[in-house]
Design a protein that fits this description.
Shape: elongated
Largest sheet: 5 strands, mixed
Radius of gyration: 31 Å
Number of helices: 10
CATH superfamily of the largest domain: Ribonuclease H-like superfamily/Ribonuclease H
Order of helices and strands: HHHHHHHEEEHEHHEEE
CATH topology of the largest domain: Nucleotidyltransferase, domain 5
Number of strands: 7
Length: 242
């Protein structure tokens, strides 16, 4: 059977120059046997399996590739297509349907409470500036993708409301927020004693990030914990976000 299937696949390949007779000879099968196999009526079992494969592919694609065999089987059962969960699992494995399951979001870092408590609020909810380079705000947020969460860190100049620095990472850590601020320093004016304002998240209260702010000649500022508009920023689309 597998030899016949191989010959049939090669026969339909336009780049193949070998005749069916030669391929049957090389694989030690009869030519008449191949043609008998190729033109025999499809069995009821094969027809049912073909129809089942089509329905499984349909429900898998409808879920944008997120359904595993159990959920696909549930959809089949709902439309009264009889089959076992194990058969669905076997078919999905056979035709290469692997569900994409995003990793759950978990908070894995904690803020430095002592560092946050000693940080002044130099902004007082005033997210405007009289000129460029004197007041900056930043935040880090997570974005849901089919492969899990990614984290976007931004730096925004309060004068122009433009994103002047950004960075993306697959984990919430200090490196992306530090990289975003370094990118801002490399591409825009930062005046001496400029204000850097953020919330009291662990990435901003870390020793590494506070040292970077100091090295850039900036003053650190943080909003009060639990009050969303104290760490208000503006997302890349220009909309105000907390």
């Amino acid at each position: 059977m597998s030899k016949y299937e191989y010959i049939d696949s090669q026969k339909s390949d336009p780049t193949n120059r070998n005749s069916v007779v030669k391929m049957c000879l090389w694989l030690a099968v009869s030519t008449s046997g191949f043609y008998h196999w190729a033109f025999r009526p499809q069995s009821a079992t094969a027809a049912r399996r073909k129809a089942l494969i089509a329905r499984i592919q349909h429900f898998f694609e409808e879920s944008d590739g997120t359904y595993g065999y159990r959920r696909v089987h549930a959809d089949l059962a709902a439309e009264q297509t009889e089959c076992s969960p194990e058969l669905v699992r076997q078919i999905m494995r056979q035709i290469g349907l692997v569900a994409c399951q995003p990793r759950p979001f978990r908070v894995t870092t904690e803020a430095d409470a002592d560092a946050a408590a000693s940080m002044p609020d130099l902004v007082k909810r005033d997210f405007t500036a009289s000129r460029p380079g004197v007041k900056f705000v930043g935040d880090i947020t997570y974005i849901h993708t089919w492969q899990g969460f990614i984290y976007l860190a931004t730096v925004i100049d309060c004068y122009s409301k433009k994103v002047v620095g950004w960075s993306i990472a697959d984990q919430m850590r200090t490196e992306p927020v530090a990289e975003a601020l370094c990118n801002a320093a490399a591409t825009t004016l930062i005046e001496p004693d400029a204000i850097w304002h953020s919330d009291r998240g662990s990435v901003y209260t870390s020793t590494e990030f506070r040292a970077l702010v100091t090295s850039l000649g900036m003053r650190s500022s943080m909003g009060r914990t639990g009050v969303c508009w104290d760490c208000e920023t503006i997302n890349p689309s220009g909309q105000v976000a907390a």
